[in-house]
Amino acid sequence: MTCVFNPAGPLETTNYVEPGYYDDLRGVTWLHAEPRFDNPVWIAFSVRTPPDTDPDPAGRLTHHFTALRLADRYMAHAAVELRGQETLLRTLRTTAGPQQLRDHLSQQADTRASANPNSWQSAMYRSLADSDRFCEQAI
What we know:
By secondary structure, the protein is α+β, with helices and mostly antiparallel strands. The protein is built from 5 helices and 4 strands; from the N terminus they run E-E-E-E-H-H-H-H-H.
């Protein structure tokens, strides 16, 4: 049984399994996140597969990401996470400095990536750690 997302209504169940769910993309980091510096800071998510990825599973991955509106879902989760971490991140930057904040964000990314390298959390924390603007002034 597979859940099918219908943007106009609730999730529906069907009695088939999408073959794309059996694609072996282990070892491929495909989820990309990028901080956007509006007020407040928010995170944009997208699919970016390495150039040597087989185009068939990469296409199915992109299709499912779009059809299930995962960018919007991940963005909403990231907003809650950032809001919950705001005081800690700001305090870390002001008391210990931007490099300590970057190290903390990298540790968060690594910890989450060890369980799932394509989780929205690992992608978000990696993008924040890689962002000079975020570590030096945004939070």
